[in-house]
Structure formats: C-alpha cells, structure tokens
C-alpha cells in the first residue's frame, strides 16, 4: 500500500470514527435532559445561546484555529445574513427537540429525526434541482404512508416530530449557501442571537420570573449548571461532526445518521417506558422500510468508491 493510500485510509477511519461518535452523543442526549423535567424551554434556550459562544471559543483554542474576525465577516455579508436566518430556523428545531426531551416525548424526537431525510430529499428537489432515484422515491412514498397512517389513526398530525424534521432540514438547506466553515458558522449563529438571549435573561431576572437564577442566588446552583451545560452538551456532537465531515464521505455520513434516532428510539421504549402502540409500530415500520431502501441503494456506490480510492 502506498503512503498516500495509507494516509487516506487512516483519514477515512478517523472521519468515520468521529462521525459515529457524534451521532452516538446525539443519540444519548435524552439521558441529560432527564435531569430537566418540565424545564422552562424559553429560559433554557436563552442559556444555551448565551454559553454557546464561550464554548466555541474554547473549541477554536483547543483546535488551534483562528476565531472569525470582523474583517472576514464584513467580506461576506451574505453568509452572515444566512447565518442569522439559520440561527432562527435552528431555534425552532431545537425548541421542539428540547420540549420533547423534557416532557416525556423522546419517541416523537426519534420520529422527527427519522423523517428528517425525507424532508431533506424534498427540499433538494425543490431548491437544488436534485433528481430522485427509485429508492428515494419509494422512501418518500413509504414516509408519507407512515405519517398518513398515524394521522388517520390518531386524528391529528404529529406536529412535534414534523416541526423538528422539517426545520432541521431547512437548517441544512440554509447551510448549503453559507460559505463559512461549520465551526465558524455555528459561532456566528450564536453571536447574532446573544443580545436577544442576554436581554431576555436580564428581563427574567429583573422581573423576578427566573426560577433558575433565583434558586442559584439562594444557594442552590444545580439547575443553573444544568441549564448552562445544555450549551456544550448540544454543541459537542456538532463539533465532532464538523471535524468528521472533512475526513469522510457524505455517503458514509448518510448511512450513519440513523444511529442517533435509533438510540433515541431504544431509550424511549426500553429506558423511559414511553407508550409504543400498534399505530406507532406500523408508522415507524413504513418509514424504516423507505430509509432501508435508500441505505441499500447507497451501499454499492459507497463500496465502489472505497475500492477505487484504495487502488488509486
């Protein structure tokens, strides 16, 4: 094996390991939020935004990278504006996800991430001119059937899962047009929202409506640290993912992304004992069938790509 080939193989292995670890962290995230039952989502979101920037500064220092400069931001105002739009979109998805985590709806979160690729496929067709393969078309059909069966059986839309899946897909679409690297864009997104988060927390404190701050001032800072901890807990997987995306293929990322909702599904059913009835079983089965078809379709191309690089 030539040195360049060995280097590439090592890089791919490292990228795959980082990607798998990021999805593992995302999948296990419900365990953290079990310490925050019925949390005030607005305040939790504000703390998460406020302490995201210090955490990202630490990440840049540890990785030896330069923080985004004002000159760089001024040079690409379009990307800055798109970062602002992405941050607002992500707030909706993260708000839905956090509400699910803290209100015994981990199964809904799992469903949201399982149907996210279907929304991403649809947005790719509408805005990026993507062409659907046969497996992707079948995945969309199975996904629509799964959601439709749930709506028909329960008489209502699974709004929580749909909002999570759709807004996270919109976030991904928005990121396609941002020219900053992943770590920089995440930092800029948080920076743009910091004034609003800080003002909201100051208003809560000034009007004596913050249970978290009040309890901390009274000597019990446990809840405060849990709220602050939501920033690194949610951003660490994103950092590992950003590092992985440079060293592995999008095909491999696509296949591994189901680790996250699968773990959340197992936690919801086996650990948190959430209700999993026949309706959910059939709906999930239909969605899983479509995603399985896409994965099976991607495997030969991924295998051929790996072989060609190996013999390059």
UniProtKB/TrEMBL annotation:
Name any one Pfam family assigned in the record: EamA
Q: Main localization of the protein?
A: membrane
From what organism does this protein derive? Shewanella sairae
What protein am I looking at?
Chloramphenicol-sensitive protein RarD
Localization terms from the record: Cell membrane
NCBIfam families in the cross-refs: rarD
In the record, the note on similarity to other proteins reads: Belongs to the EamA transporter family.
What PANTHER family is this protein classified in?
Answer: ACYL-MALONYL CONDENSING ENZYME-RELATED, SOLUTE CARRIER FAMILY 35 MEMBER G2-RELATED
Highest taxon of source: Bacteria
Q: Does the keyword Heme apply?
A: no
- What membrane topology term does the record carry? Multi-pass membrane protein
* UniProt keyword list: Cell membrane, Membrane, Transmembrane, Transmembrane helix, Transport
Annotated EamA domain ranges read 14-151
